[in-house]
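Encode chain A's predicted structure.
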Amino acid sequence: MNNEKVYFNENEYCPSFTGSACTDGTCPVALSEEYPEYDIDVPSSCFECSGYKGCENCIWDKTLVCPYYQDNLKKGEI
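Encoded structure for chain A:
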């Protein structure tokens, strides 16, 4: 899902999404709080973040935490 906004259903983003930037110390929100003197631009939501790549950079991709993976398992597609 290259650079696509991933939706859990038609109206909301995946509730399990956790990007690699959220956990590796490069999250702009965390950096702006840690280093306010640098006036870092903060996106309005995680899904507007320049680092957001949908499933491609979600730490839960291809795990049982991922609702898409669970659905595919149930359907026998994996």
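The chain has one domain: 20-74.
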